[in-house]
Amino acid sequence: MSETTGARERRPRTDAQRNRTHILDVAERHFSEHGITGSLDAIAKRAGVGAGTLYRHFPNRDALLAALLRARDEDLMTRRDEIRREEADSAAALAQWLDALGRWATAFDGLPEPLRAALTEDSSPLALTCQGYVTDTDEFLRAAQRDGGARPEVRGRDLFLGVLATAWVRGAAMADESSARALTAMMRSGWAGPARIARTVSDAPHRPDQT
Hints:
The chain is an all-alpha fold. It has 2 domains: 1-59, Homeodomain-like (Arc Repressor Mutant, subunit A, Orthogonal Bundle), CATH 1.10.10.60; 61-202, Tetracycline Repressor, domain 2 (Orthogonal Bundle), CATH 1.10.357.10. The protein contains 10 helices and no strands. The chain has helices spanning 3-34, 40-47, 51-57, 61-86, 90-105, 112-118, 127-146, 156-170, 179-191, 194-203. Helix 4 (61-86) runs antiparallel to helix 5. It is elongated, with a radius of gyration of 22 Å. It starts with a helix and ends in an 8-residue tail after the last helix.
């Protein structure tokens, strides 16, 4: 192969990668501004490419979301490893992991719904990501259950869905600034073991009744 021929073959791949990166940058801004229901055709127009170019790289919305979440996945995995390494209290580690998942699930308005759907749609590009995080949640949960910090009947899948529900509440029309925090507290009281609940109550500051 001549150098000229090699250069011609490399150029389309370079251009395609440049287009892909540019589309992701534009989609990041578009979804941040309009939520994930924003039109993919509008993203293509904003990126200055044809709709066909966008769909060649990302055949559907889930594929685009999966690509956008990849960098956030790396941050979440880093946080997961930090919790495993630094937090000796298994129930506290589970709570911290669920908090980290909640931040990940609120990257864009409307994101919780396709994440929920991906749990039952093996063909979704988001499916492996969600299943992986359910597995991670199970690992944190089992450790807390062994130590008596979480109820034995609780499942990691349900905790993951609870995180998505809380993330959805943050953007709900009827929600206020305390709604997600209240729902998180209720969810935690549902999974925490009796010893953990008793410790939480005993550690709470005493407030005399006001009449």
